[in-house]
Design brief:
Elements: H1 2-14, E1 19-24, E2 28-33, H2 38-53, E3 62-66, E4 71-74, E5 83-86, E6 91-96
Parallel strand pairs: 2-3
Antiparallel strand pairs: 1-2, 3-6, 4-5
Length: about 100
């Protein structure tokens, strides 16, 4: 998880509006939302490859690019609580480094 967080911190240093999350399952898995331009995706993958070459990440990294984060919010119930549902997301690209 530490390596995934490091990658996201470095990517957000270049792009403050980046919407990304990470998980760990045998290596960092980075989920990136709303980056649909191939050139921006390639730049992010190059940045991750550079981080790996520096020795800061030594595990295999999987990067999944999604069209957008697909969330549905419900209206407040009688107690005033809102509901959040994560719907299926449209995967654009799945890269392994």
């Amino acid at each position: 998880m530490r390596q995934g967080k490091l990658i996201i911190e470095r990517l957000k240093a270049r792009d403050k509006d980046l919407n990304a999350a990470c998980e760990s399952a045998g290596g960092p898995i980075i989920d990136v939302y709303a980056v649909t331009e191939r050139a921006r995706q390639d730049a992010m993958l190059a940045e991750i490859q550079e981080i790996k070459q520096q020795g800061l990440v030594n595990r295999r990294v999987r990067v999944r690019f999604y069209e957008r984060l697909n969330i549905t919010y419900t209206k407040p119930d009688k107690k005033g609580a809102w509901g959040t549902y994560y719907n299926a997301e449209n995967l654009i690209r799945d890269a392994k480094l």
